[in-house]
Amino acid sequence: MSSAFDLTGLGAVIYKEVRHILREPTTLVLILAMPVMQLLIYGYAINLHVEHVATVYHDADRGRVAGQLVSVLERTPTFHLVGSVASTAALRAALVSGRARVGFEIPAGFSRDVERGRPVTVPMLVDGSDAAIAQAAYGSAAQIEGALSTWLDPLGESPAVEIRARTLFNPSLRTPNFLVPGLIGLMVQNITMILTALSIVNERDRGTLEQMRVTPIGSGALVLGKLIPYGVVGYVDLLLVLIAMRTVFAVPIAGSVGLLLALSLPFVMTGLGLGLLISMVARSQLQAVVMTVFFVMPSFLLSGMFFEIDLMPAPARIISYALPMTYFLEILRGIIVRGAGFADLWVPAVVTVAFGVGTLALASLRFAARPS
Question: How many domains does the chain have?
């Protein structure tokens, strides 16, 4: 009877496992590259210091002091002026659409009142769907007041200018309101991609996939027959997590649920197409899982779910804008948190549709053309 401490044949077992690893160089390269990718993403792409926040302003005064206030905003590192708007309604619309995260409204008579020493309030609208950005904007309000006072002091004025912040969409800055919508997209992407890839790789390993290819089943029917069930699973998961978001985390849906479900369809198609592409490259289920992780990690960290894309270095931003999750995240937060409509989200919607149709079409064509 052998003992648990009997090491007879240890060298042979180690030799066998090393040969097994070397027989799958793709898996070995992926596993070794994963920690390097993690280090690059965490150490190089992530920036916790919030600055250059997209900002718009409405100048209803157009006076001398108002112009100086705009100059102060341009010099404040926290803000990046992306343009001016013509009305208060347009200011709010810029925040709803996601074009800007902060908006300043300079009231009519602002310059006259400041020059006469009267107290003046400048409303600052802040997108509360991102707590980090909102808190950075709050912290910069006193900095703006101080910079404007420094400019006015040599004139012998006694200004009383207050930047009064007002948080839109998520006034309490609740973390679930910011975090949960992004997790919904990640879960839907992961479940459709992983299930599709593992299912096809498993059938290929068992030989059933090749048996189906030689039966009188059309290539289109074979592809759709494999993908539709997992698309349905993805949609069911989407509905379940939306219900959990609403009931468990008490996150309200400010916009149209119908629009959200409609724009989710191309994103589900993207996950199915990516899973199909992975299944054609991976030679084993382990490779399929590792390849999926390689795609999931950038989607998790570089899509804007936790860290603002504008704060990332150029190479990381390029990766971010190449990820389907980046655009679907804007749709999710736009509809759920900000109550945005299609007119506000048509750009990420069009890109999401392009990803869905393009990825699924490419994967289907390659799958159908693959020899048996």
Answer: 2
Whether residue 183 is contained in a domain is answered as yes
Place of tokens 């027989």: 23
Range of the domain at 180: 175-369
Q: Provide the total of helices (H) and of strands (E) in the chain, helices listed first.
A: 14, 5
The pLDDT assigned to 117 comes to 77
Cβ(333)–Cβ(181) below 8 Å: yes
Residue 5 resides in a domain: no
178-207 tens-digit pLDDT: 888 888 999 899 889 988 888 888 877 777
- What's the CA gap between 165 and 122, in Å, rounded? 9
Note whether 194 and 162 are same-domain residues.
no
C-beta of residue 302 within 8 angstroms of C-beta of residue 312:
yes
| Contacts (Cβ under 8 Å, ≥6 apart) of 338 | 95, 96, 98, 127, 129, 168, 169, 254, 255, 344
Nearest to 271 by CA among 207, 227, 211: 227
The residues, any chain, with a CB within 8 Å of residue 240's CB and separated by 6 or more, are none
The CATH number of whichever domain residue 150 belongs to comes to 3.40.1710.10
Asked whether residue 96 is assigned to any structural domain, the reply reads: yes
332, part of any domain: yes
In a shared domain, residues 290 and 147: no
Nearest one of 187, 155, 140, 179 to 65, comparing CA atoms:
155
What is the arithmetic mean of pLDDT over 216-243? 83
User: pTM for this one?
Assistant: 0.82
Cβ-contact 336, 181 below 8 angstroms? yes
Q: Are residues 224 and 353 in the same domain?
A: yes
- Lowest average pLDDT, out of 53-62, 98-107, 287-296, goes to 287-296
